[in-house]
Amino acid sequence: MLESYKKWIDTWVDLSRESVSASRIREHGHPIRMNGNAAALSSSEQHIQAVCLTMNAEQRNVLELLLEQERSSAIHDVLAELEHQAGEDKPALYFSGCRLGGSPYASFHFDFVSRQEGDEWPDED
Prior knowledge:
By secondary structure, this protein is mainly α. The protein has one domain (2-116). It has five helices and two strands. It has helices spanning 2-16, 20-28, 43-54, 57-85, 108-116, and strands at residues 94-95, 98-99. It has a two-stranded antiparallel ribbon. β1 (94-95) and β2 form a beta hairpin. α4 (57-85) runs antiparallel to α5. The protein starts with a helix and ends in a 9-residue tail after the last helix. The mean pLDDT is 90.
C-alpha cells in the first residue's frame, strides 16, 4: 500500500508541473488554443489572446508563473478535500487497487507539497 500511495502522490506532483496554459504562453505568447480553423475563438478567448500579445517577455513570464502556482494550489486543495472525504465511514478512495484512507505520513496535501519541493520520502523504519 505504501508504494502505491507514494506513486499516487508523485503522480499529482508530476501533474502540477504540466500547465497547458503556461506552456502555450511560453510557445505562442498567449494561453489560447491553437487548433487552426477547427472552431472559431470565443470573444473571451480573443480578448485574452489580444491582451497577452501586448505583454512583454517579462510580463508573460510572470503570467506563466502565476498559472503554474495556481495549478499547484488547485491540486493542493483537491488533495485536502479528497483526504477529508476519504476518512472513516466515508467513501473509499482507491489507487492501483489500494485503499487510500489517509496519508501514512502527514496528509495528502502536506506530502504533495513536500514532494513538490524535492523532499525525499521518509525512511520506512
